[in-house]
Amino acid sequence: MLAQAAIVFVLFAEPGFPALDVALPLPDFPGAVQVQTVAGLDSALAAPGAVLVWRHGSAFPAEAWPVVECFLERGGNLLYVGGEPFTH
């Protein structure tokens, strides 16, 4: 029987980053790995079993898009909170 990778919730939490189309305050996810930079997001999403928790609604840092897109294309999971994903 194959062992399953533990789920690792990765939460983008850069101080001062805006949230659009989502109620404030932003929801908290206890136990999540909090990442405060795009560079940190890249390394955190490389973990087996990673789930990206995006709680900023439609706002996202443009420099993070290649990292997020690559993560999703290779089958990564996304828990999205808020309006239309990744549009602002």
Shape: globular
Number of strands: 4
Mean pLDDT: 83
Helicity range: 10-25%
Largest sheet: 4 strands, parallel
Low-confidence stretches: none
Looking at how many chains there are and whether they match, the oligomeric state comes to single chain
**What Rg, in angstroms, do the CA atoms define?**
13 Å
Structural class: alpha/beta
* Beta-strand proportion: 15-25%
Order of helices and strands: EEHEHE
Strand order of the largest sheet: 2-1-3-4
Distance between the termini: 44 Å
Number of helices: 2
Report what the structure shows.
The protein has 2 helices and 4 strands. With 88 residues, the protein is α/β, with parallel strands linked by helices. Strands 2-1-3-4 form a 4-stranded parallel sheet. Strand 3, helix 2 and strand 4 (77-80) form a beta-alpha-beta unit. The radius of gyration is 13 Å and the shape is globular. The mean pLDDT is 83.
Short key terms for the protein model shown above:
88 residues; alpha/beta; 4-stranded parallel β-sheet; 2 helices
Write the layout of secondary structure elements.
Elements: E1 8-12, E2 33-35, H1 38-44, E3 50-54, H2 65-73, E4 77-80
Parallel strand pairs: 1-2, 1-3, 3-4
Brief rundown of the structure:
The protein has 88 residues and is of the alpha/beta class. The chain has helices spanning 38-44, 65-73, and strands spanning 8-12, 33-35, 50-54, 77-80.
